[in-house]
Design a protein that fits this description.
Elements (H helix, E strand, L loop, with lengths): L13 E2 L9 E6 L3 H10 L5 E6 L2 H10 L6 E5 L7 H11 L5 E5 L4 H8 L4 E6 L4 H18 L2 E2 L4 E2 L2 H8 L7 H13 L6 E4 L6 H7 L7 E5 L7 H9 E2 L11 E2 L1 H5 L3 E5 L6 H13 L1 E2 L10 E2 L3 E6 L3 H6 L5 H7 L2 E4 L10 H13 L9 E3 H8 L6 H15 L4 E2 L1 H8 L14 H18 L4 H8 L3 H11 L18
Parallel strand pairs: 2-3, 2-4, 4-5, 5-6, 9-16, 9-17, 10-13, 13-16, 18-19
Antiparallel strand pairs: 1-8, 7-18, 11-12, 14-15
Helix pairs in contact: 2-3, 11-13, 14-16, 15-17, 16-17, 18-19
């Protein structure tokens, strides 16, 4: 893998043009002039297009509600018997913000054009009276946009970007700048002997980062610190080892995990779970990199050479301030830091992750039993908060693929997988009060930043001073810059 990572310029996939199976694309025409609809049918008769006709706005909205992801494009007349076309367009865009809408009218008054522009959905205007070939070309252009947006994952082919290739070589699936920045830090920190702390939410991929940090020729020896919550004595005996007779059942000398880790990498996962007593014992070892086996009264200490990598949740600094975690131990293990962004901050990676899980699901199955996923489903998944991150995403994809009765997974299958209220119907890890408070606080701050142009505006929305918001951003490890909105977005419905 190239060591120089700063020259990345393309962060998207370049698709290969491949023949597509002949299929009909549905377009919804909301128009009270049957003559115009018949003219459209005649013009498009050689194309694989099915026209669904609604003679007024209410009927058009009703047809669209039945299949909000099923129309390649929607054509709306501005002057309808019951509604203005702009009002119908706003409602349809509310139901599906990705829907391409084409407006048409026999009038060209400036007021009409301004009204259509304000809907946010008027990508183009089809003036009645212009050559039907021009109208036909614009409709086909809209359908081409839909074909690219609503392609089926599992049936398409593409060339991976440079970012994807380099991330995959390191064991990661994604293409986001956030994940690529993690890879850049891994490359810099891997040769370093200094302890490294990996910060990330549950299920975000901290263990993958730890594995990628292991230098060539060395092994990763992992310890799940949550296992020792109830007993620091168990941690001490397993970490340091013991001599015969040290306690009941110690019938022979036994080398500890540290002895086996000599010359390799020791990974302390879920470090925040350690009890204060266990934290103190671990700190004592890290200060001198020496330890004594349990029950060894000879005074002999063993020295080892080991690289320390630890992983914890982003709220570790709050735990330090609350005296739940030893400050000295935090500074000892956090000489270098890597922040793994949560999935909701790198939604560009969702498509590739889903594609990977889809490949696992389809592996070994006959073609007739293999599943595919529409890209519109991925767009819906990108709107979810994913509190369980990649782990939750994988569970949702497995549920969708298993429960889907057809061969193609649609947005409705995703809605069923996470429940009507948007809450996952599969089990999520329980969390402490501190974790829950930090998560909710983080979500509210991110929502305020996304709807604000400056940090000052976000602070006002939250009822905080700018100074208080900055402290919270630092504590929660939130970078406000990619979240701030460049402009305000207002949405209306009829």
């Amino acid at each position: 893998m190239p060591k120089k990572l700063g020259s990345l310029s393309v962060m998207h996939l370049e698709r290969i043009a491949t023949p597509e199976p002949l299929m009909k694309y549905k377009i919804l025409v909301i128009e009270d002039d049957e003559g115009f609809v018949n003219a459209l049918r005649l013009s498009l008769r050689t194309q694989p297009i099915e026209i669904v006709w609604a003679a007024d706005g209410a009927a058009g909205i009703g047809s669209y509600r039945k299949s909000p992801n099923g129309f390649a494009t929607v054509i709306i007349d501005y002057c309808l018997p019951d509604h203005k076309g702009s009002e119908v367009g706003k409602t349809i865009r509310k139901l599906n913000e990705l829907q391409d809408v084409l407006f048409t009218s026999g009038h060209r008054d400036p007021e009409i054009l301004i009204d259509l522009l304000e809907t946010g959905g008027a990508r183009t205007f089809l003036p009645k009276g212009c050559p039907m070939e021009e109208i036909r070309a614009r409709i086909l252009d809209s359908i081409a946009l839909y074909k690219n947006r609503d392609r089926v994952i599992g049936a398409d082919a593409y060339n991976p970007s440079r970012a994807e290739v380099e991330l995959k070589a390191a064991g990661f699936i994604g293409r986001s700048s956030g994940l690529y920045n993690v890879l850049a830090k891994i490359e810099r920190y891997r040769p370093s002997p200094y302890p490294t702390l990996i910060l990330g939410e549950t299920g975000s991929g901290k263990e993958l980062v730890a594995k990628a940090m292991v230098p060539t020729g060395k092994s990763l020896i992992a310890i799940n610190c949550a296992r020792y919550v109830q007993s620091e004595n168990l941690l001490e005996s397993e970490l340091f080892g013991y001599v015969k007779g040290a306690f009941t059942g110690a019938n022979n000398d036994k080398a500890g995990i540290l002895t086996r880790a000599h010359g390799h990498v020791l990974f302390l996962d879920e470090l925040h779970e350690l009890s204060p007593a266990s934290q103190a014992k671990l700190l004592r070892f890290l200060e001198e990199m020496k330890f004594r086996r349990v029950g060894d009264d000879s005074g002999r200490e063993l020295s080892i050479d080991v690289k320390i990598i630890a992983a914890t949740k982003p709220d570790i600094k709050e735990r330090v301030r609350s005296k739940l975690f030893l400050e000295d131990l935090f500074h000892r293990v956090a000489q270098l830091e890597i922040h793994v962004p949560p999935l909701r901050e790198r939604v560009e990676d969702i498509e590739l992750l889903v594609g990977s899980f889809l490949g696992e699901f389809n592996s070994g199955k006959p073609t007739s039993e293999q599943k595919q996923i529409r890209i519109s489903t991925i767009h819906e998944m990108a709107k979810h908060e994913w509190p369980g991150n990649v782990r939750e995403l994988k569970a949702a994809v497995r549920r969708m693929l298993t429960d889907c009765t057809g061969n193609v997974v649609t947005p409705s299958d995703f809605s069923a997988a996470i429940g009507r209220e948007g809450r996952p119907t599969f089990a999520l890890p329980s969390e402490s009060l501190v974790d829950a408070t930090s998560r909710i606080e983080s979500e509210q701050i991110r929502k305020a930043l996304r709807s604000s142009e400056t940090q000052g505006e976000a602070a006002a929305r939250l009822g905080l001073t700018r100074w208080t918001l900055n402290r919270k951003l630092d504590r929660l490890g939130i970078d406000p810059r990619p979240l701030l909105s460049s402009k305000s977005h207002k949405e209306h419905v009829c």
